[in-house]
Every structure is written in C-alpha cells, then in structure tokens.
Amino acid sequence: MSIRSEVIAQFEQVAREQDKQLAPLADDLAFLDSGLDSLCFAIIVARLEDSLGIDPFSTAEDTVFPVTLGEFIKFYEDASK
Amino acid sequence: MLPNDRASLWDTLGANAKLSQRFASVHAAVTLGDLAGGSCLSGRASELAGRSVLIAAKDQLVASLALIELDGVARRLVLCPPELPAEHISFVIDSVPVDAIVSDYDLGLDGHPAIGPFIIGGPQIAPSEEDRTPRHKTEWVLLTSGTTGRPKMVGHTLASLTGAIEQISPAASSVVWSTFYDIRRYGGLQIFLRAVLTGASLVLSSSEESTADFLTRAGANGVTHISGTPSHWRRALMSGSAHNLNPQYVRLSGEIADQAILDHLRAFYPQAKVAHAFASTEAGVAFDVRDGLAGFPASVIGSGIGGVDMKVEDGSLRIRSPRTAARYLGPQATNLADADGFIDTGDMLELRDSRYYFVGRRDGVINVGGLKVHPEEVEAVINQHPGVQMCLVRARKNSLTGALVVADVVLAAPDSLNGQVRETEQEILQLCRATLPRHKVPAAIRFVSSLEVASTGKISRQP
Questions:
Q1: E strands, B57-214, in order
Q2: Domains of chain A with CATH codes
Q3: pLDDT(B15) > 70
C-alpha cells in the first residue's frame, strides 16, 4: 500500500471512529477545515507509526510542520526515504 | 483482649499452651500453643532481646512465628518482603539500622560488615523455655516500594497495626483466614494479625505455588475468610480452581475494587459477604465497604468512625487516625503527615451522587494534550464488558499530544470467540465511548494472554 493511500485510509477510519464529519479529501485541504481535531491527528499519527513504521513528527527538527493534507502526505513520504 | 500500649503480641494471646490456632504454609503447619514451650529460633531468641531485627525468611510461616516470638522482646522488627534484591536488603540494614537477622536462607550478604546475630529460623518448633516478658514497645517496620526503586521504610507500632481489628468474639475460632498477600506486606500483615488476635487459624500463601494450587490448598484447609487485591481475585477467577474454595467472607484491598470485580465475586460466591477496604502502609486501615458497591458513601468522610478522620483536599484522600504509621526511617526520611497530622494517600477521588469513587493515583495520571486521564477509571469501564477478565490501561507516547491512552486486555475465554475478537474490540470501544470523554477512550486495544501482577498483588504499571 502506498503512503498516500495508507494516510487517506487512516483519515477516513479515524473520522468514522471519532464520529467526525470529514471534509472531502484533497491535497490542498487545510487541517483546520478537515473536520478532525488534535486528538484525531494524534491517533492518526500513532496508527501510521504502526503501519508505516515511522513517525516524522518525533524525528523532524527544523522542518515546517504540514498544514494541508498534501503536505502531510509529503511529510511522510520524505521521512520514509 | 487487644494489644494496648504495654502488651506484646504473645502476651495478648494469653501466652498459653492451649492455643489451638493452626498456621500453615505450603511446607509445614504449626499449632500456636506449641510456642508456649518452644521456639522456632534454634533456642537463640534471647540473643535478640533489645535488638533491631531484620526478619527475612522465604517461608512466611517462619516469619509469622518469629514475629509472634519477638514482639516485645526485640526493640524493632523489620519485615523484609520476599524477593527483595540483596542490594536493597543491604540498604535497609544500613539505614534502619539493623543489628540482627532471622532468616531461613543465605541472604547473599557476603562482605556486608558483621551486624550481630544471624539466626536460622525454621518452621519446626524445638522445645525451649523462652523469656518473653515484654520489655520493649517494639517498632514494626514495613517496606514499601519507593519511587527511586529503593524501598521506603515505614515505622508502626503493634497498636497502630491492630487498630482496625475488632474485638474477639468467642465464635471466631471457627474462622480460618487466608490471604493471597504475603504477610510482610501491609495487606497481608493485617490478616496475619487478625488471625493471631481473634483465635483464627491461618493458611499462608507461597510465591512458589500457582494460584490454582493455592486455592485448592486453601479449600482443603477449610478457609472461610480470605483477602487479596482485585488483581489477585481476577487471577483466582481465571485459575479454574476458584470453585475449590467456599468462603463466607471475601475481602479486597490494595487496588481500586471496581463494580465488575465485586459483581463477579458475588456471583461466584453467592454465600459470601464481599467487602472492600481502603488501607495503605502509611495511612493504615481507613474503612471498609460492605454494601457491595464500588466506591464509598460520601458520609464516611468526616464521620470519624473508629477515630479515623478523613478529608478530601486537592482531589486526594487525606487520613488522620491512630492507625497511621508513626514515621519514615532512613537517611532521606520525609514527614509522613502534614502539620495537622493528615497523611496524603495520593489516591484521587471523584464525587458522584453522594458517593466517592477512587479514580486512580495522582502520580499515575496520563496527560493527553493537557487533559488528565487516570488509567484506573478507564480500566473500570473496560472491565464492565462481560468478555473481559482484566486489563491494563497505559500511556502510549505521542508526538502530537504527548500521550495517548491505550489498553491491554485479557479476555475471559479467548478461544470461545472463534475469531470474533474484532467484534469484542468494537464492543469495548463502544462501551468506553458511551461513558467516557473522547480523550479517555483507548486509541488502541491490544489483546494479550496475561498481564503481569507484581509480588505486591497489584497489577504492574510502567513507571
């Protein structure tokens, strides 16, 4: 499974579990408008660490944190290289 | 008669040969009356008069007999719990300090400076005329796990330890006590003293014995009254041997007794009274709850029953009573109590519908993005699921919120689920979502075959 599809799958899964109305997923979707809150993101990051074996938020220094879905996916793709 | 300030344990017993109480360990059994003309201390008990004695025996029966023989004779008795590493034993010897040892094995203290008599005790009682005239108000020192890993040393008197034990009723001699606890722990020591002072027999547990074997032995010895932590009891109900026991009285202490374990025990032992007690090594026995419900009535606070004053401050239970310990011993001993004599138990309470519920330890809080979660409150919800035997809620480090709540769950009958584990997981999560705020709902549930229970009888929590 690609990183992109795994990320999207987790967004949808966590939104369902947390009973959140997820905005249509597009690369330019800002997290602020996604319908997910910080707890949802914390869970997504934990699940991705389990499935992809990486947590770029724990290792990234000096990097700018992602604010859109596209940046989030790239954040993970870069970290996996 | 209960101990007053002058009497020793042996004195209080009436010091006579007619005592028919039988104390049994996995290896041996002794009738207390035999101590009237005998000793378990190889005829050397007199060497311990006035000394500060470490009792470090593998066999709880040896420790029991030594305590009965030496209270009032020794100046101080230090109760060494089982499996205490040699370096901690050395630390205790130096810090208390100790100048004599009773043991039944090689403590591995080679190289430790000579500290006076080392007496090998055994469960066999040899004829011996002992002078047990009480000449000391013996200090009893219990060890609890400290935050640094080194044990904390807590000083009690016989009077503070026995303050919660009710007057002997003549019918009590038909009682046979047992406890999953080791008697060197506060919870176990309470049962030991209760048995000694109320004329009851006692069946001692052993770390060498499985829970199933212990229950079978306890049942065969006619145990009527038995105590343990909720973790002990969950393990007992899983052992397949709990039906070998037919208790009249079941007591829980040491951990939060949630409604699920109380209900399970009531269903399993319908003839038994099920009670849960609040006690700690430092604060002593505060109260017990006999209405079968988790928590305790709010009216208990401020009632002063049994001379126990309680209050809730900053969310935690504070206790002042004649049953609290007198002091901490050792180099970095801090004050036990505040200026008004109250001990902060660190156990956090929540008031709901005129009842207080324990929600967890102050130092065990999980911080999820600034929101506090007590693992125990989540465990209490998960334990309500009928398929759950026991569980451990812990923090999982998270780079966004600092931590998330996750749960390790042991199922009661994992094989009967036929691959429906996923459904069970969803049911547990639904249960949590229905009763807990979102940040307290586990982000992940892991099914495990067992959970580690420490030698204290409490579930092992990561520091």
A1: 76-79, 100-103, 118-120, 126-127, 139-145, 151-157, 176-179, 201-203
A2: 3-80 (1.10.1200.10)
A3: no
